[in-house]
Design brief:
The complex is a heterodimer.
Chain A: E1 2-7, H1 8-18, E2 23-26, H2 33-39, E3 46-49, H3 53-65, E4 70-75, H4 76-81, H5 83-92, E5 98-104, H6 118-124, E6 128-129, H7 134-150, E7 155-160, H8 161-164, E8 166-172, H9 188-191, H10 195-217, E9 223-225, E10 228-236, H11 238-246, E11 250-255, E12 257-259, H12 263-272, E13 275-279, H13 285-292, H14 310-316, H15 345-355, E14 358-360, H16 385-395, E15 404-409, H17 410-426, E16 433-438, H18 467-474, E17 478-483, H19 487-499, E18 504-509, E19 524-525, E20 544-546, E21 553-555, H20 565-569, E22 575-576
Parallel strand pairs in A: 2-3, 2-4, 4-5, 5-7, 6-7, 10-11, 10-13, 14-15, 15-16, 16-18, 17-18
Antiparallel strand pairs in A: 1-8, 6-12, 9-11, 19-22, 20-21
Chain B: E1 4-11, H1 16-29, E2 33-37, E3 48-56, E4 69-74, H2 77-82, E5 87-96, H3 103-106, H4 116-122, E6 126-128, H5 130-137, H6 143-152, H7 159-169, H8 175-188
Parallel strand pairs in B: 1-4, 4-5, 5-6
Antiparallel strand pairs in B: 1-3, 2-3
Helix pairs in contact in B: 1-6, 1-7, 5-6, 5-8, 6-8
Classes of the chains: A alpha/beta, B alpha/beta.
The complex binds thiamine diphosphate.
Chain lengths: 594, 196
């Protein structure tokens, strides 16, 4: 055994590998991404990014059907996309062990909502494990496969940000469990879910859950820790750690399996405790489950939305708050995230702003085009939605005289934009413009490959999905590919395609600024030429500022990557490469450094 | 022993994640239980970020609360002042003397806040010119390691442990520069609070 510092994501993947998982498949999404990335680096495994979570789970089902053990990863909203196979997979059960790792985002650090995946476990009747720290994630990542095969069921493992992106020491180095594969047996009663068979499996599913509930009663997954009987706490996952910190004397019932619950053991615990509370964040899944078992719990006035912390638990229970500093209060400006210097999405949003279009958006780095000063996105719901929403707005007769434009990233288009495009073309009732922002990478989640760039997770040979050919094959008459860093070309393309009386697709193509090794510049502002018109500042580049005193622009040379976007928009030739002009860069640094 | 809690804060892209990783590894190599918690994703695109590292004999929660932080390491002054209430009275405040204007300030939509550094000084901040020291070390990107060097003076880990952890974590070519950056930070640091 060796002890290494691992994140919850890495640890769960390590556990899956030790259990002999041979195929890993998923779709990136914060905070789940590093689970599959880590799995892909382990020996003797095959791992791939699927274009979306539904496909990922279907691939995993195939592996299981053939007798292999598979490991599937996604973020909470990814499980919505995979929900269709998920619910019926609960009926069929498995052949080889099948484990789905899903990472929730309480606090909405990097997502579009705060849904609690435990509801899926109860909804679909699939057991769900909830590790609290990386060490448990490692154990449960392995244990889940045995459970899956023993009970003939897929198994969900739920994580949250504070597990996925928490790190602590984990004892690894166990041997890999290489077992004999169960043979493939044709069994239509189990695997072909048409009504006659599904009805029988439905009954079977209830029996299975009853067995699992019985198993939960004395499973090592659930742990009762008896301390003071004055207060009993039922909790799971990271909330257990917060509760231990905040209430060190309380007795705890730590659920390692959030579904199905051990009713008898919980009732016995409830009887011992003078007061019984449930501690959980962002949803009341456990509290509702306990109440439905007839267990009386005291309400806790903790915030419903967002993450918990030990301090919030203490506050909710009226336990002494720490002394604070008597610190000065200075109003501080917010610091929203922003597009990187040199980002190829920026010129497209700057041009879109000029068109005054209604822009339906999508999910990725480019969602940041919503924020000032670009302010060029009107809606963002879920991956792929931009295309359908644009069609819908057009069908509703548009919004005044504003043109309608959908904006979608390359990975997002491959994820779920294609079916929307098929619909819009098939029902050719509208003339919206569909903009695909092809920055050659899945940037937001940390640079994964995708079908459009043809880069695969384990660097196997692949091919690039031709966006232009695809759009044409679907039936789009007007398709063009434009360099997103060429601002006049971007503006002209948008103007023409918006004016066109039919649906058109523009692929704006240029690599993510973080992929570029060679940087030009830095640029500088020639103070004598600068008219203070602000046009460069309105690009929202973090390298460009407006001097509060003179009103003129300045460029921070330590931030500038030399993309030249500002040089292209400047009408006074005031933005120059420094060899050609006296530097007028204003320092960002206070005091000595810089 | 109650755990020691350290918060590293700054602007996405400044290297708080690597710094926290070094810190957690040094704690683990010194025989402590350690927990680290950080935020990936959208905020890393130039937003306001923090990472928490806690170590001791037993550590439960990876998170912390206002009034509970023993050491706040600020990579940027506005982000440090934003989190000042996390530092317990008597806690240590170590700050990189650098201000990165948020986008609303750059665009002129909001004025740059005045008196940020003075307010931090009043709270007892020790300032480090981490970017200048990083350039001096030969690795301009190692301001994060300079700050870890400065922090190290107040922590119960041996210098050798730090060196091993750094050498194992940074690219081979930059090991010497990073160890130098660490040393410059350590040297520049005037007062450590010692073991809490
Ligand atoms: C259903 C679903 N799965 C995954 C995610 C996580 N996610 C957010 S943005 C994104 C990738 C966007 O990539 P791309 O469209 O290429 O845009 P870029 O970030 O490169 O600009 C992913 C995977 C999500 N929000 N929803």
């Amino acid at each position: 055994m060796t002890r290494v510092l691992l994140s919850g994501n890495e640890a769960v993947a390590q556990g899956a590998w030790e259990a002999g998982a041979e195929v890993g498949v998923g779709y990136p999404g914060t905070p789940s991404t590093q689970a599959l990335e880590h799995f892909a680096t382990l020996p003797d495994v095959y791992a791939e990014w699927a274009p979306n979570e539904k496909v990922a789970l279907e691939v995993a089902i195939g592996v299981s059907l053939a007798g292999g053990r598979s490991f599937t990863t996604m973020k909470h909203v990814g499980l919505n996309v995979a929900a269709d196979p998920l619910f019926t997979l609960a009926y069929t059960g498995v052949n080889g062990g099948l484990v789905i790792f899903v990472a929730d985002d309480p606090g909405i650090h990097s997502s579009q909502n705060e849904q609690d995946s435990r509801n899926y476990a109860a909804f679909a009747h699939i057991p769900m494990l909830e590790p609290a720290d990386p060490s448990e994630a490692h154990e449960m990542g392995a244990y889940a496969f045995g459970l899956s095969e023993r009970f003939d069921t897929p198994v969900l493992i739920r994580s949250t940000v504070r597990l996925s992106h928490a790190k602590s020491m984990v004892a690894t180095g166990r041997c890999r469990d290489v077992r004999e594969r169960p043979p493939y047996k044709k069994d239509i009663g189990k695997w072909v879910m048409m009504p006659g068979m599904a009805r029988a499996r439905r009954v079977e599913l209830d029996a299975r859950i009853a067995c699992l509930a019985e198993y939960a009663e004395d499973s090592p997954l659930n742990q009762v820790e008896l301390r003071d009987f004055g207060l009993g706490v039922v909790c799971a996952g990271v909330s257990y750690l917060h509760a231990r910190e905040a209430l060190p004397d309380a007795s705890t019932f730590k659920l390692g399996m959030a579904y199905p619950l051990p009713a008898k053991a919980l009732k016995a615990f409830a009887e011992k405790a003078e007061r019984l509370i449930v501690i959980e964040e962002a949803d009341d899944f456990l509290a509702r489950s306990l109440r439905s078992l007839g267990i009386l719990i005291e309400a806790v006035e903790a915030p419903r939305a967002g993450e918990l912390s030990p301090g919030l638990i203490r506050q909710a229970l009226g336990i002494g708050a720490p002394t604070l500093r008597d610190a000065p209060s200075i109003a501080l400006p917010p610091r929203p995230p922003l597009l990187c210097p040199g980002c190829p999405h920026r010129p497209v949003f700057a041009a879109l702003r000029k068109t005054r279009a209604v822009v339906t958006g999508d999910i990725g780095c480019y969602t940041l085009g919503t924020l000032a000063p670009l302010s060029a996105m009107d809606a963002c719901i879920d991956m792929g939605a931009s295309v359908g929403m644009a069609h819908g707005i057009a069908l509703a007769g548009g919004v005044g005289k504003q043109p309608v434009v959908a904006v979608i990233g390359d990975s997002t288009f491959a994820h779920s934009g294609i079916t929307g495009l098929v619909n819009s073309v098939y029902n050719s009732g509208s003339a919206e413009t569909i903009v695909i922002l092809d920055n050659r990478i899945t940037a937001m989640t940390g640079h994964q490959g995708n079908p459009v760039n043809g880069i695969t997770l384990q660097e196997r040979e692949s091919c690039e999905l031709g966006l232009e050919q695809l759009a044409k094959a679907v039936g789009v008459g007007r398709v063009r590919v434009v360099d997103s860093q060429d601002i006049p070309a971007v503006e002209a393309a948008l103007k023409e395609e918006i004016a066109a009386p039919e649906l058109s697709v523009i692929v704006f193509k240029a690599p993510c600024a973080l992929l570029l090794r060679e940087k030009r510049g830095p640029y500088a502002v020639d103070a004598e030429q600068c008219a203070g018109c602000n046009i460069c500042v309105r690009l929202g580049c973090p390298a460009i500022g407006r001097d509060e005193g003179s009103g003129r622009a300045y460029i921070d040379e330590s931030v500038c990557v030399g993309c030249g976007q500002c040089e292209q928009v400047c009408r006074f030739s005031a933005i120059v490469l420094p060899s050609a002009a006296p530097s007028s860069a204003t320092s960002y640094t206070t005091g000595g450094a810089q | 022993m109650t755990p020691t809690t350290i918060m590293l804060c700054g602007v996405g892209g400044q290297g708080t994640i690597l710094a926290a990783d070094l810190l957690a590894k040094a704690a683990a190599a010194s025989g402590y239980e350690v927990k680290l918690s950080e935020i990936h994703g959208m905020a890393q695109r130039g937003g306001s970020v923090d990472t928490v590292v806690r170590f001791g004999e037993a550590v439960y929660s990876p998170m912390t609360d206002i009034g509970m932080v023993d050491h706040l390491v600020g990579f940027e002054v506005i982000e440090t002042l934003r989190r000042i209430q996390f530092v317990r009275p008597g806690g240590r405040l170590l700050v990189n003397r650098r201000l990165i204007p948020p986008l609303p300030v750059l665009t002129g939509d909001t004025l740059c806040p005045q008196g940020v550094e003075e307010a931090l000084a009043q709270e007892g901040a020790e300032f480090i010119d981490a970017d200048a020291l990083a350039r001096e070390s030969g690795s301009a990107k190692s301001a994060n390691v300079v700050l870890i060097g400065a922090l190290s003076l107040g922590l119960p880990f041996d210098k050798e442990v730090w060196h091993e952890v750094i050498a194992a974590r940074v690219p081979q070519k930059t090991v010497d520069a990073n160890i130098k950056a660490f040393g410059l930070g350590r040297q520049a640091c005037t007062k450590g609070v010692g073991q809490p």
